[in-house]
Hints:
The protein is an alpha+beta fold. It has a single domain (47-198, 214-339), classed as Jelly Rolls. 17% of the residues lie in helices and 32% in strands. The chain has 7 helices and 21 strands. The protein has a 6-stranded antiparallel sheet, with helices on both faces. It has a 6-stranded antiparallel sheet with strand order 2-3-10-5-8-12. The protein has a 5-stranded antiparallel sheet with strand order 7-6-9-4-11, with no helix packed on it. Strand 17 and strand 18 (296-300) form a beta hairpin.
Amino acid sequence: MTHELGRLEDLPENYVQDLRDLNVVPLWPSLRGVLPPHIPTRQTQPTHWPYKRLKPLLLKAGELTPIEKAERRVLVLANPGHGLDKMQASSAMYLGMQLLLPGEWAPSHRHTPNAVRMIVEGEGAYTTVDGEKCPMHRGDLILTPTGLWHEHGHDGTDPVIWLDVLDLPLVYYMEASYHVNGEPQKVLTGRGDRQYAHGGVVPTRVFERSQKPYPMLRYAWTDAKAALQALAEDNPALEQVQVTYTNPETGGDAENILGFYALMLRPGQSLRLPARSPAQVFHVIEGEVQAQIVNRQFHMVEADTCCAPGYEAVTLTNLQADKASFIFIADESPLHRKLGVYENRG
Ligand code: 1HN
């Protein structure tokens, strides 16, 4: 049973002031606010960022702000429910669209928040992470986990754009967010994306092998797409044709806080994702999709991004009757599972 609790206004003003003078506040006027009945209050609003409108503004940023003045030339996809200045897509997720022009270089640094990049458009750019030079092609997922040096370069002829996903809001909230600038990295031999490209067959542990906590930094879209297509063909009755980006050594999530997945919607398929506690981000890699999130319906085309608050079901519909659509998903489930607050409410 939920009782009406006393309000701050019910207390004598001089008593409240005496409390304040001691840096003390009464709990009961705020108790329901921090602990609402049955379901959390969520500031995260269903929000759609259409790429068609974002891209010209990002290219304009390329004219207005040289890379030296930006370090990372990014337009942040901010959720209005949190306030745009908070730069949050959800409570734990940050999203940004980053532009790198031909010949530009985004200098080496490392930081405590974990990042990934989902490549949206353009050829010829690369990112060097922990000494490993990772080419960027459309749909590739590249990790820059906590503490690893990373820098971006571009040898091609056209603008390159990618989506950054970070756990920055959470790490910032923890007062654990900081960066260190560094020198250009020496590119080392050895590429995790080659060594671990074939699931189930991993390099045998021998003493020479370095024990890297993140052995695979680049997940090629060609491999992820082939895995989805094989899964779909092999399981004609399977509804949720989805793969998880994992650490190939541990089988666990690719990073510690956010989870990353690729989903294939069969031609014309409508898929209801159950209401689970973590917030989610959806980004269309290929195809055309309608996303039904709470009371909003988003018509999403290639390179569009949207987000959904936690504890809400989401229905994704492939608007292509004759072709599959492919969606990149980021969510907060590794965090929720580790903290013991993960729920699936169906
Ligand atoms: C960062 O390091 C990058 O390295 C992109 O490309 C976006 C947003 C906040 C903090 C660090 C990058 C970032 C970021």
